[in-house]
Amino acid sequence: MTSFDITAPLPSGTTLIEASAGTGKTWTLSALVVRYVAEQGRPLSELLIVTFSRAASQELRERVRERMAETLTALQRGDVTADVLVNHLRDCSADELAARIDRLATAVADFDTATIATIHQFCHYVLRGLGVAGDSDSYATLAEDLTDLRTDVVDDLYLAEHVAGSTLDYAQAKADAQIALDNPSAVLSPTDATGPVAARLAFVEKVRAEVTRRKRRAALLGYDDLLTELADALEADDSPARRRMRERWSVVLVDEFQDTDPVQWQVFSRAFGFRQAQPAGDDKTLVLIGDPKQAIYAFRGGDVATYLLAAKTAATRTSLPTNYRSDAPLVDALQLLMANVQLSPGIVAHPITAQRTAHRLQGAPDNSPVRLRAVLGDKRLAIGSVRENVYADAAADIARLLTSDATFDGSPVRPQHIAVLAYANRDLHGIRAALRTHGITSVLVSSESVLRTTAAEWWFHLMMALEQPHRPERLRLAALTPFLGWTAEELDARGEQATEAISAQVRALVAAFHRGAIAAVLDVARSQGLDARVLSQVGGERDLTDIEHCAQLLQEHVLEGTRALPSLVAWLRQQSADGTAATAASRIMRLDSDALAVTLSTIHGSKGLQYPIVYAPFLFDHWMKDDPTPAIIHRDGRRVLSFDADEVNQPEHRSEALGENMRLAYVAMTRAQSQVVVWWAPTWNTANSALHRLLFGQAGSADQLDSLLAARAQGGDGPGVVPAERVQLENAAVSEQILRTWAAHGVFSLTEVDGDRSAPEVVADRATTPLTVRRFDRSWVDQLWRRTSYSSLTAASHDAGAATSEPETDAVGRDDEEPLAVASNGAANAAGVGADVPSPMAQMPVGTTFGSLVHAVLEDADFQADDLHEDLLDRIREHLAWWPVEVDPDALATALEAVCTTPIGPLAGGATLVDLPRTDRFAEMDFELPLAGGDRSHANARLGAMAPILREHLPAGDPLRAYADALDGEELGGQALLGYLTGSIDLTFRHDGKFYVVDYKTNWLGPTDAELTLAEYAPAQLAEAMTHSTYPLQAILYSVVLHRYLRWRLPAYDPEKHLGGVMYLYLRGMAGPDTPLMDGQPCGVFSWRPPSALLEDLSAVLDGRTRKGAR
Question: Could you tell me the pTM of the whole model?
Answer without folding.
Answer: 0.68
